[in-house]
Amino acid sequence: MKLFLWNLLLALTWGVATGEFTPTNLVLGFGLGYLILFFAGRAIGPSPYFSKVPQVALFALFYLWQLIRANLRVAYDVMTPTHYMRPGVVAVPLDAKTDAEITTLANLITLTPGSLSVDLSPDRRVLYVHMMYIDDGDVEAARRGIKEDIERRVLEVMR
Amino acid sequence: MSSLILRTATRFMLPLLLLFSVFLLFRGHNEPGGGFAGGLVAASAFALYALAFGVPSARQSLRVDPRSLIGTGLLAAVGSGLLSLVLGKPFLAHRDLWTIVTLPGFGTLHLGTPLVFDAGVYLVVLGVTLTIILPLAEEQQ
Amino acid sequence: MTIVLAVTIGCLYAAGTYMMLRRSLFKLILGLVLIAHGANLLIFVAGKPSGAQPPIVAPGASQPPAGFADPLPQALILTAIVISFGVLAFALVLFHRTYQTVGTDDSDDLRVDEV
Amino acid sequence: MKDLLLPLPLLVPLMAAAVSLLVPRRVRVQRLLAIIGTLALLGAGAALLIFVASSERIQATQIGAWPAPYGITLVADLFSATMVVVAGLMGLAVAVYSLTDIDPPREAFGYYPLLHILLMGVCGAFLTGDLFNLYVWFEVMLMASFVLLALGGEKAQLRGAIKYVALNLVASAVFLAAVGIVYGVAGTLNMADLADKLRGQSAEAGLVTTLAMLFLIAFGIKAAAFPLFFWLPASYHTPPVAVSAIFAGLLSKVGVYALIRVFTLLFTQETAYTHALILIVAGLTMVTGVLGAAAQHEFRRILSFHIISQIGYMLMGLGLFGLTSDPALKSLALAGSVFYIVHHIVVKTNLFLVSGVAQRLCGSFELARLGGLYSDHRLLAVLFLVPALSLAGMPPLSGFFAKLALVKAGLEMQQYAIVATALVVGLLTLFSMTKIWAEAFWKPLSSGTQATEMQPPQTASARTALLAPIAALALCTVVIGLAAEGVFGLALRAADQLANPETYIRAVLGDPS
Amino acid sequence: MGLIAVVLAGFVAAAVAPWLVRIARGAAGWVLAAVPLGLLAYLAGQLGSIAPHGLSVSYPWVPSLGVRFSFHLDGLSLTMAVLITGVGALVLIYAGGYLAGHRQLGRFFAFLMAFMASMLGLVLADNALTMFVFWELTSITSYLLIGFDHERPEARSAALQALLVTGAGGLALLAGLLLLGQIGQDLGLPAAASLEISTLRTLGKESVAGHALYLPALLLILGGALTKSAQFPFHFWLPSAMEAPTPVSAYLHSATMVKAGVYLLARLSPVLAGTEAWTWGVMAPGLATLLIGGFLAIQETDLKRILAYSTVSALGMLTMLLGLGSPAAVAAAMAFLLGHALYKGALFLVAGAIDHETGTRNVDQLGGLRKAMPWTATAAALAACSMAGLPPLFGFVGKEAAVEASLHHGPPWLATGAVMLGGLLFVAIAGIVGARPFVGQRTELPKHAHEAPISLWLGSMILAVVGLVLGLAPGSVDSSLLAPAAANVLGRKEVASLGLALWHGWNLTLALSALTVLAGVSVYVARLPLRWLLGWGKSLSRWGPAGWYELGLKGLNVVAAVQTRLLQSGYLRLYLLTILVTTVGLVGYTLLRRVELPRREDWFDGALHEASLVSGLIALAVLATILARSRMRAIVALGVVGYGVALLFVLFGAPDLAMTQFLVETLTVILFVLVFYYLSPSEPFSRPTARLRDATVAIAVGALMTVLVLVTASADWYPSVSGYYAERSVPDAHGRNIVNVILVDFRGLDTLGEITVLAVAAIGVYALLHLRPERRQPR
Amino acid sequence: MTEVLSSLLLVIGGAFMLLAGVGIVRMPDLFMRMQAATKAATLGVGCMLFAVAVHFGELAITARCMLVTAFVFLTAPLAAHVIARAAYSIGVPLWKGTFCDELHDQKDQQGPPSPEGSAAMSGQTDSKETAAARGTPSDDNAGAA
Amino acid sequence: MTPWVMMRSAMPLSTMTLTDAAVTLALIMTSVAMFLALVRLVLGPSLPDRVVALDLIGTLSVGFIAAYDIATDQPILLDAATVVALVAFLATVAFAHYLERRARDD
Ligand code: NA
Ligand code: NA
Fold this sequence. Notes:
Bound molecules: sodium ion
Strand order of the largest sheet of chain D: 1-2
Number of helices of chain B: 5
Number of strands of chain D: 2
Distance between the termini of chain B: 10 Å
Number of helices of chain D: 22
Low-confidence stretches of chain B: none
Shape of chain B: elongated
Order of helices and strands of chain D: HHHEEHHHHHHHHHHHHHHHHHHH
Shape of chain D: globular
Oligomer: heteroheptamer
Largest interface: D-E, 124 and 104 residues
């Protein structure tokens, strides 16, 4: 089942790539995807596949907003002579469990300016994030910010 | 590298890159791409896998010895040219070895020996790059 | 315009030459790479590049739009790039093995057999 | 017919190599393929030569059926067809020799496919009628030679290979740049088309000559001409003998071939400058090479330096060609070069093969540690003496007639300096050969020699595999000498074709009508 | 046809000789002697038929080069051929005994037979180049025979010396012969015939002498002749060649091969002689050799070396006579040639027999052997008398003729004096060699002397007796053999008797002859004080030609070593530097010599392109690469260079190229990183001066390439072939991406070659990484 | 309208690019340089690709732009993460103003080999000490000289 | 639309379209960013700094190509950008791999 979903995704990607969403092209993409999955089969571990389209859309909008907002903040900092940063490496305990969840979360964290996933604890329970703006030195607030703003929403979408 | 994040992403990237590589191969005759670019992308995919998971896993996921890809690719490339030689034309004369297949709902497909040739190139490039990179990475690990 | 490209090519050749003349084998290889870039660009410029129109025929058309770039130098360079990639890979590993076996990065230490 | 015969010398080794690559662990199959492949290559070459010689014209095939100058043309004139035959012969001889000489690990790691691909590159360079394609074949040949040189990974091999690789890559870079510029100014890569177009550029002869210099450098390095030869003595004594032998026979000669090709076909605008320069280079190459050999005391190094020296003779014919307007003398000079190349390939390959047997019997290549071969190995002594004396130009062996043609042409053109050089260098060559003879053959084996270093062939078949190719090549040397008219007549006809580019141009581009 | 059989028979015999030795063992010499004897018989049968034109055969060999397999038998060649076969037969028999039981006897006979055949070929050949072929073959066989005792270093170096000296002369000869052919062509001979000696002789001497190439040709040919015949200053190789077994010395180095030079002069004198240059060029070295050889001979104590120097001296006599060139001189030369071959061959064989039986060749140790070795002694006595020029032996006839000739030609006091001086030295030498070992008291010897077996004395005896017989009846060889030979030398159609006779009556010649003998005897008597007196000469000879040879050889080695150390220094960077400097020099010079640099508007149109930005990026990245102080830094910077180049490709409409360049660059970086993982840090190696030098060269290279690009960009002679691709790509090749269509179709062969390169690179990398010496089992 | 939108996006994208460039030069330590550079550039690329999509207004090209954007958004954080992780592991120093380093503290507690030169300091609040503790000033020769 | 930056900037403002101006500005800004990245690449001080600079130049290239696409109306050039976007990060991964090995081995 999982593989089937994967295969479908690959077919769609093929469609996007070729820019032709004709049925034949999608079937071709599906076939190619099948072949590739056959050859790469062992590489792909367990991987959930969700189609929560509305959730995803909402999250995307939220994320975009985060992205722009954070970027502007950094921009201001970069362009102005004084550094306003209060950086630090913060340990964020994770609720995310699966590989996909953790990875998605980490990447999304990284993608927003001002935060950067540096490492994951060996037991996969803590994500260490480098943050540029720990306002007022409140580490806990920063930690909470990540958990509330991003992790919760990500898990909502993914679970 | 032991980063779970990289590994998980790599699991996703591998098929994506491979698909993209095949895409490059097939459209190469009409749009930018082709056997070289395709083969290099495919090789990059496995190189990434080898960096993330180690060479043995990469070899496992490849399933075939990259060296045999080289031989196969060479034979495919030569073979595509031999056909015309057998038909009494000069070597590598692709120009009359085309069929235009019309598929309902898709349009027309131009199929010819150059595709076989380019696929041979793809295989050789893939095989070669991996034959080079995997042992080197192995040496480091 | 040509002068800019010509000087760039000259830079690549000069830097490549200088690196090749170092005793360090690593720098020698670096020099070869730079010179390969220089040679590729030289072919490119010798083909008199003009515009940005790629030599690709639009679907349905039978010839590329006017002002298309000369495809032949591109094909030649593509071949040359791939060849130099193969050569470079081999040279790198050869260097690697030499370093492991002879234990040096200094080309002056390779004299032993000749003198 | 020509559409089949011309690509065959490329396809045969390529197929043999590809199939060998598919069975990496089945060394016996690879061995069999090595013999069959090289034999087939020889056959293909012979068929091509017969075809070209009997058809009385230059043959060309348009690969891909695209008309010249748009596609790639393979061209076989008598010169290139002859070279293909010789390459096939050397391939066969070395393949047989390799059965004993190459150790199982090297065999298992791709020795035979590499040999095939080397031959393919060599034949491609001989047959192609396209300048960039020539670059590609050079690279094929070069890459195969890189790997063959380093295969085995011994210290000396690696040291030699580094120098070999670095210096040859410089040549490739120069070549590539030159090709790019040629395309930039003439808009074509087809050599016949180029010949046609460059001839019409008398106003731009200066630039054409500048290009000629780039090619002179690029091919001069490949040909190991003075002062560009360093890669050769730095490396040829390091790989297994079979590899040295095929290198010695073929590689630098491809450079000479390319020089002859472009300096007869493309760059004949300012021969008083270009070919005079070639003649000077020829003389200096002869002298430095032979002096280099005189300074050596190792079998293969002596032979390596002699390659350089002999390259000078081959270039001498080319230089002389450009300095006369008499068509008969032009042909004589070029025929001298062609004949010299054929002779040299056979002889030099053979000498290297002999050096390998000597090393097996005495455990060393050092003259000081060799000895006693004359007393105990009569056949080997004869088999050394024939090519050695031939190399020194002793009559009635092949080398004598090669030198005779060049000396004759030089004298008739009143180029006395180069003739004197050629003759004196001949004497010094004799000196070197007798040095080897006296040390390795006449001198008794020194008592300190370790028996453990010797690796005499153990079985009769192993011995045959070593000696049969040597004997066959020695026989060739004798036959080429005694029946020199056959080969020299061929060389003269080949030279006529070279000296008249019009026939080449017409064969490729078709008649102007 | 018969002539060709004569030449080839020896080679066939040479090929079977080793097997014959295995079968016939001790009798092999006798059996093999049948070959030259048979040939002798054949030749004797031709005695009558050679006059006036001789016999000729001619087949094409390498006609394109003017080489014909053509032979000509006339008086001169017949004389030589008779000597070669006759002496050859005797020497073969002798060698069978002398080297009985030697394990390399088979090879010896093979070489000897091959030599004989070559020598026959030399004297019979009519085509100059064919003659040269055999000329060189005699040098090679001589080399192999001198070095027969190959385990001794002296033998090896003597063989080399002989080969190098005669080989050098041979090369000069080749050039000379070719020039002669050219003269012939210039004088109207057809190209095919211009190298046939018989044809060349039909040219008028005057026209040849008037040709601009006459002098060079003459000098070059002399170079060949004088070295081969051991004329001063090339004489030194001959005494050294005495390292050869005695049969070889007797045959090659006295009777036949050393006469090849004289033969050549004789053969070509109808073409070349008669000029001042000839007279002095031939006579002067002959005269010097005659005297120097004689003086050196009486200083020696080794029998063979004495004989060798006396041979040198005799060859000088022959050369001098040919240089004089008068009919009388030529006649004397012919007589002397034959006489010398007979007595000197005999004396050598005697010397060998003595050595064989007593174990020494030192004349000071020898004495009183006449009883122990009567046959040998008899032969020696006869031969010595002949050498001393005593009647009634043939040597006397020869000497008389020589004295006679010297009186009537040239500056009389010089030639006559030389002949007399030479003659008296011959007498003394004859005494030392032919008489001294046999007379007087028996001495203590390394071996107890017995008479040698018949094979060892038969040869000398026959030669000596023939000398006696011919001395008694000189007319028998005069008309049949020597007169035709002399006619050939003089280039005359009609054969006139030489007038050889034992008795010419009481005349000046006889008086002078007698005087010579008397003086010679006194020299013999006073030989020991003389040897002592002349001792300084020996120390002087170190500075003589032999010393020059040694010095030359040493000099060659030094020059070679220095040159090689300079050029092939082992430093890769110097190799690269040399190549790059050559490139810049050659290409730059040629460029500036003739090419007009493009005008400014051709390369700068006033506008700037996006490419300028990218170019700047590349240039800076390049700078960062070369200035990087660590490897990883350089690799990163190199990556930027690659990306920059790819961007340039994008800017000029090359997406395929850019794509591939990006990919390759990325993979290259990965490769670099993987490979340089292990590398430990290294210090900068070069000194500042070296860096400055290299930077200069590098800037020159860069400047050259820049100028080349500018020149190229402004030169646009013809439209590119690419128009065709644009036109045909879609309709014929079914592809819209023209670059890809070129790669897989229009120029698919390039791509095939290219993937082959890649495949090979992969094999190479794989093998380098997996196949390591330490992991390999010994084979 | 299309022209205005695409131009606007282009300029915004370019501005973000420039921001990335300034950021990578101006920021005081590696981690903040990455923060400034990678993300701004990613967003900038997104904007510019959006501009391309708007400019051409064709489905195929829009799809292509989406694809490229997706690729960039997929790979950029990965690259940032791996290099940050590696940099941290070789002890690239944090800025002296760095407020806390909980990863370092955690490593100290667990006791795996800490980067060389790091004293067993756990000054959670003293940023100067954190920087000092983490740090050998590491040129890239933390790998190769 | 002409690709010449300077030609465009030399154009009278009246003939310059909005897109021209935007493209010129974007290209210049991206180029400046590249130079700045190069500055970081040269300055370091640590290898990761340089690698990040390389990575940034890769990303900037994608933007550069996108802007150039608009400037020249050549969407096809975007294909090159696709490849950069997809594989350029591999170089960074390789360096990271190297650094981690190094850290572990030391
Ligand atoms: Na972030
Ligand atoms: Na920031």
